[in-house]
Amino acid sequence: MSATPAAAQSPLTLNIQYTKDLSFEVPNAPAIYTLLRSAPQVSINLDVQVRRIQEDQSVYEVTLAARAEATLPPAAANGATEEKPMVVFIADLSYAGIFTLAGVPENQVEPILLVECPRLLFPFARNILADVTRDGGFPPVMLGPIDFVGLWQSRRAQMAPTVANA
């Protein structure tokens, strides 16, 4: 049985995915382990970055960058008089994939790269972040579902005023 030409080439191919950068830091160890009585407050920042691998080809590196920073409120830090929260841990992850686009109309390239590609990478990045925080001795950071369409639309809205003013 042979594959039909239409089935041979998908419009979106994930060639490889990989951990591009991973950092986990516990700046106040070992004291933080004795101060931590409940789950810390965790703030999450996500970003999607796209880079064309070669100018004359439709091959792109898409990176999902996630930063999780956990803190203890000043009052929970053993009665400390500091006004700023104590850092429990900082986890930085850049998880990337190399994607090939084939026969994609020009007006669909941006949403595919900024919505569909990160959607494919997200479950793997989520697992890595949960594992590294758990292995660091803390409750695992479990990222909830991400609205990549909303992120893409808000990015476009932020860029629109600068284009209109140019």
Account of the 3D structure:
The chain has 166 residues and is of the alpha+beta class. The protein has a domain of 116 residues: Bacterial Protein-export protein SecB. It contains four helices and four strands. A hairpin with a 6-residue loop joins β2 and β3. The longest helix is centred in the last third of the chain and has 30 residues.
Strand order across the largest sheet: 1-4-3-2
Order of helices and strands: HEHEEEHH
Percent range for β-strand residues: 25-35%
Query: Do you know the CATH topology of the domain at 26-141?
Result: Bacterial Protein-export protein SecB
What distance separates the N and C termini? 56 Å
Helix content, binned percent = 25-40%
Principal-axis shape: elongated
Number of strand segments: 4
Low-confidence stretches: none
Instruction: Tell me the CATH superfamily of the domain at 26-141.
Output: SecB-like
Multimeric state of these chains? single chain
Helical run tally: 4
CATH structural architecture of the domain at 26-141: Roll
Sheet with the most strands, sense and barrel status: 4 strands, antiparallel
Task: Spell out the key features of this protein.
34% strand; alpha+beta; 166 residues
Nutshell version of this structure?
The protein has 166 residues and is α+β, with helices and mostly antiparallel strands. It contains four helices and four strands, in the order αβαβββαα. The model has no long low-confidence stretch (mean pLDDT 87).
